[in-house]
Amino acid sequence: MRKALFSICMLLVSLSLSGQGIPLCKETPFQAGETVEMGVMFKWGAVNTEVGRARLTLETVPYGPDSTLVNHACCSIKSAPFFDVFFKMRENFQTWFTLDGQRPLEAIRDTYENGYSATNHYFYDWDEGVIRADVSFYGEAPKHHDLPIQGMSNDIVSLIYALRSVDWTACQEGEPVEVPFAIDDSVFQVKVTYQGREDFKVRRIGWCRALRFSCSVVAGALFAGDQQLQVWFSDDANHLPLAVMAPLKVGNMWAWLKSWDGLKAPFEARY
Asked: Domain for residue 225, yes or no?
């Protein structure tokens, strides 16, 4: 399950966007006060059960000694009470990043997954080109690591907003892009491919115009090396996360949009 969550999060990754020539939206597609909730589901044959919820919020706060205004995003993932018996999951993430969505400043990860636990505390030292990382597993004393900033080495939550900030319709369809992603004491490179526009039916919401992406996964206990994760964002001014699908060796894991509030632009589905 840890690898499933890790690979889903890797899908929400971005490059050093403007520095790599990737076009950005003229305006950021999010604003303070935005809240997005998603249901996490497991599907295998006739089994199609919601096993948890994810909630993502964004606010503007003063940061640092000069009280510069920045974005503060929080993401929580919690398994349902009935599913706690099988696999208890509590994920809490925070990140502070610049108002344009392009430069993370600090990030905190606090994870519990069925006995496994980890904490990450990142400070981004852009002058030195490193992430000052304090990482702990299973409640042990944290160990310090200096991780290289490779382009835009995002943490889990800032990735979501960086990816939403791209004008994907101006990008080349079907051409994979290698992107860096920092978690725990490592920086990984994965390939993200923009697959184009399509009509996509969101569970219990309706048909939406969507932007679709795929991502190669890390082969291991849950994934085969030839599998692709899929993600859909709304094809509008919000670039709202609509769904994520992670194919497992047994069944699929889905995250579906359930509710939203405080969006920057109107969002409507076509039933």
From this structure: yes
